[in-house]
Amino acid sequence: MADLTAFAQSNTAVRIRTAASRGTLSHALIFSGAGDRVSAARYAAAGFVCTAEGDRPCLACAHCRKVMADIHPDVSYVRDPEHKELSAETIRAMRSDTFIRPNEAERKVYLFEDCSILNERDQNILLKTIEEGPSYCAFLFCAENSAALLQTIRSRCVELKLGGTEDKAETDRTDAVELCRLSAKGNAASRAAFTAKLENGKRKRDELGTLFEDARLLFANALLVQYGGEIPPEDAQAAQGLAKYLASAKLLRMIELLDTYRRHCDYNVGVGPTLGGFAVEWENALK
Ligand SMILES: [Zn+2]
Prior knowledge:
Blueprint: H1 11-22, E1 28-33, H2 37-49, H3 62-68, E2 75-77, H4 88-98, E3 108-112, H5 120-132, E4 137-142, H6 151-154, E5 158-162, H7 165-185, H8 188-200, H9 205-226, H10 236-245, H11 248-264, H12 271-286
Parallel strand pairs: 1-4, 1-5, 2-3, 3-4
Bound molecules: zinc ion.
């Protein structure tokens, strides 16, 4: 039985849940990228058939549990283990099946775990089904690279990329917000502890680049607050804290510093020396 509770914490899951609960989840989805594509597709399948009153999927109702156990009669995995490519019969049988109303749920879901088995002929049959099939049908495609699907299919799907920076955005931003908080209210010791923590956390160069960029945007928004401009609500708390405690000259110095170090991360520099240099200049910028 698939345990989807860990996946339910990810940003992609939040996106699926919000749309599924509102009934606005697209009936054709592509799950691409290096993350756990099949779990994401299962989660979305549960979102379509879940009967919970609140958030969907709830992962607790009979429908959700059947999806996780792979025994829901209205969620089909389109496979053809006998062949390298999906046979014409399999895809035609699937097409005929779409015209039979769902058994137990409101919706009927077809899940393709590996789109590399779909040849052009299959995809052209599918295209018609996605476009003209009954409105209760939903199609979920998993492919590391969405280019495995024809452009005509891709243009009718919503693509959700997994395992990329989008999915990691939440944790990365926590560090950026912390960097801002320590700039506004911390002292030299707490800032040194923070850079040491980043270094011990074995951050990768591109993660560090994202952190500097996220922090730079928050500082830029703090400057905007001081000028009376409007900023995105999700940045308000961090930016207002900075705007309150740091003069605009310091904000400007930090924006420049973060920009310089973000660009450092584009080159092949070591994370340790980068953080060491940043720690020194960070203190200077706040003097
Ligand atoms: Zn449910």
